User: What shape does this take?
Amino acid sequence: MENTPIAPKKRIFSAIKPTGDATLGSYLGAIKNWVSLRDEYDCLYCIADLHALTVRNDPATLRRRVLEQLAIYVAAGLDPEKCVLYVQSHVPAHAELGWILDCYTMFGELSRMTQFKDKSRKNADNVNAGLFTYPTLMAADILLYQADLVPVGEDQTQHVEICRDIANRFNGAYGDTFTMPEAFVPKFGARVMSLSNPTSKMSKSEEDANGCVLVMDSPEEIMRKFKRAVTDSDTVASPVYYDKENKPGVANLLSIYCAATGCTMESAVAEFEGKGYGAFKPRVGEAVVEMLRPVREKANELLKDKDALVSIYTDGAAKAAYLAEKTMRKVRRKVGLTERPRY
Assistant: This one.
């Protein structure tokens, strides 16, 4: 009997900026989902420190956050033997392809990007060119590795769309060069909202620190934040039900609870039937505490051995650079750049 060839795994790429301490939003919206994909796909997960440069950072703090983010990746279950874990700036091809793709991206496309408009308003004193061309570098991140799938939050789907537009334009000019990636948005936890302002995304930079839960927060701190979470003034017998439009705070907490426990929305609502917010909010907090506890404890252990973390990202960068160079050789040849000398 002939052996049936095994189809190659599809490839996944995703990344998180180390511009602030890792949040519950980035954990539920990204890292937790990455772990569930590690066996089925060929995965590359990056710490996007080049993207972090669009805002001003304290250099020592940025370097600390890179190591801490890597520790959280590993502690969450991203095995460096199964996934490529690396730091973006350690693979220069990201910046090289980013510049080439800048030349195949239209000004109008970039000016319509929602995040550029939002970040320009929030950082009016630092509206730099990197902030404007950020989506092109993100496209380079994805296309460099011929990624099939890009796990993103709901607010990031526009970046995958422009990435596809750029890839399609380049492929149309030079023939098939880049794989056309698709966005993957998880059902729950895709966009975790602020606990203090549930109409806004949970963010490292939000003004009210009580609205943002950090992965490395203590259990006491997590519980305090959830007990203070905004709900509403509904006084009916069973105020806990999902209504994103009229009860955004409750809807956000229910989504977090489902993502933390793995239960369905229907079962979560049934669990809290007849119970008030005084019972509901602490229960959500407890679920998050128990979900994050092993991650925080293991990450703290990993951070005690810096050399081991450096070894992980060094090995990851070598693997990523090998894959990136395969793409870059094709790209350079197609756009007319001369063969790179060996030195």
Observations:
- Residues 209-300 form a domain with the Tyrosyl-Transfer RNA Synthetase fold (CATH 1.10.240.10).
- Residues 216 and 296 are 5 Å apart (CA to CA).
- The beta strands are 11-16, 42-47, 83-87, 149-151, 182-184.
